[in-house]
Here is the input.
Amino acid sequence: MTVLDVRNLTIHDARRRALVTDASISAGSGEPLVIIGETGSGKSLVAQAILGLLPRGFTVAGTVAIGGGAPIAADRADDLRRSWARDIMLLPQEPRAALDPIMRVGRQLAEAAVDRSEGPGAALMAVDLEPSVARLYPFSLSGGMAQRVLVATALVGASPVVIADEPTKGLDAARVARTADLLKSLVREGRALVAITHDLALARSLGGTVAVMKDGRIVESGPAARVFSEPTHPYTRAWLAADPSTWAGCRRCFDMDDLVLAAHGLRFGYPGRPALFDALDLHVPRGGVMALTGPSGCGKTTLGNVLLGIQAPAAGEVTWAGADPFRDPAALRRLRRRYQKLHQDPVSVFVPHRTVGRQLADLGQVMPGFDVTVVLPPLLERLKLAPALLGRYPGEISGGEAQRLALARVLLMEPSLIVADEPTSRLDPLVQKEVIGLLRGLVDERGMGMVLISHDLALARATADEVIDMTNDRRR
Amino acid sequence: MSPIVQAVSTRALQALLTAWVLATLCFAFVHALPGDTALRIAAARVGEDRVTAETADRIRREEGLDRPIVVQYGDWIARLAVADLGRSLVSRRPVTDDLAYHGRFTLGLGAIGWLLSYAVALPIGVLAGFRPEGWVDRLSTAVSVGIASLPSFLVGIGLISLFALTLRWLPPAGFRTGAHMVLPAVTLALGLAAFSIRIIRNAVVEVRSAFYMTFARIKGLGVRQAFRSHGVRNAAIPVATFAALQFAYVVDGFVVIETLFNYPGLGELLVKALLARDVPVIMGAGLMIGLLYAAANLIADLVCLTLDPRRAAQAAA
Here is the structure.
């Protein structure tokens, strides 16, 4: 039975720009519908329109029928909101922000329950949480637990439609799989699940119907199995090809006498907790890429900082081109700028109120003899960056451009080694493929070394010559 | 140990330390004042025109003002430890009696003014917070800014000239009847509400825009129901903290209002003592105000601990 039927949804923002054009979707009880698209494709706006939660000033046309009721004009936000809880439920992007921080989980669950006589225990157990979680306050829940609590909230309610907005944002591979299982439990309960995501792994795992969105239009839709095996639209094909698990691997052998970085017997741990890593050895040759992977909190970033000489290890030694930055201050001063970090959030490495071009020129202050007018133009060309970008402020550039500008800044320092900490986790898959291809090419051309930190094992495998999985420090 | 007990004991210890630091500072400042203390006391006791060098010398000997300063300080701290604040140099009454007498007036009027201010500020602040940029919000902002930017004695003079002198509804000054309390309490309440309305309004706006409020609606709660069960307590945390601190401010910032309305509170006691250089009273009053601050802080902390489980968890960790 169709419980959600959206017809000809068109959304304009306050400046009359079309953000969603003529989108139609429908979902039936016990079926997943996955709306997949990149950042800015308009997929989240579709969810907001269905819920009557579009920002002020937006105009919307089309109809929404929920729970088998009569179609409601999409611009009647108040009428749409009447279906909240009764017909439709949201699993929001930031699960913890959806919970009142100072009310116990159990009471918040009870508020959504249709059958108030039943305690929260059963619903919590249905999402693999201990019934005692009901006594906790949201601030002591992890992000994953909070998400489970929200799924339990949907389970105790009666809404036949559940919208999950980016349920796997920022999660590592293992957690994506667990979240997919969790969402499937809603489908098994007979709910229609509408998942809004940019995550191919989640879409594949949920199955059901897939609608691919690009620039506000649904360019392709159909059964997941068909869309993923025989995509018809060129965009879908390009996107599927951008999935790292389909890339050709590129492992090569190197001259292990020419190392830009070596580490022996590294150990690091926070007091009172087991060591994050112990007796860890690694070698990065000139032109080589080493990947560190593992779930959040396993110590990837900490290890990266140790390798960069920023954080001292509890034991072991780091060698930069033959010198130990922790024991040889002269070498540290001399080599400091050759060992650079590329950050996860590229915008944050630039100060906000100064143009990007001036910030790149500022490097002259730390590097004698540096002339930005000589070195920058060929570098911009290599990174496929338009010189006009230099006149912009950091807030005015797209994520992919920002990451390439951040890379330009690092490259201007002529590094021997770059530690790239989740450099693409905020980027869409097509942009990710481009940035990773660029990084890989630059490592070859410049004879640098690179340490790639990523929670995405497929990406690590597809990019690196050697992978250290820090889950249990097994080399793959 | 429960977080509450822990917070109380930590704060009590801090209050003791504060008391000692305050006592020392009071002592240091009073003794650093230029001029002859004994001469001023003599003037206060026998009258400006009958003071002679002999009277001053006698007072210096009697009150021990001729002893080395370290001895005077040690003596004062030692007596402080047994809650003996000494006697007023002017009236010769025990300082503790003076403080208890005047403190009662200040705390009484302070409590009334403070309660009155929240009786006004809470409904207005909540209304303004429910309709940011609406007329209640704009009007209350304008009036608050106006009152906050006027010194309290001007507000007081305005009220006196309107209600006491022109309309003759209320007595302009003094403290004999309840009617005497109205104008100083209103003056005080207006000054306090000018700030607390904004705090309440902002707390309500912030809570209402929090995503858990939207989510509570999506879960099926009505607007009022969502605000009752999720909004009130969350908004109460910053408001309660501010209210407790404002109560401390009442005691301290009262000097002007008490003087204006000729009201016999701590502020008036302090001003008179300062003019007469009545060292024990100055130090006693300074100490008491400091301790009231510490107590208000303690109450603010306890309120937060009961309202906010995050704080309780932090305190326990």
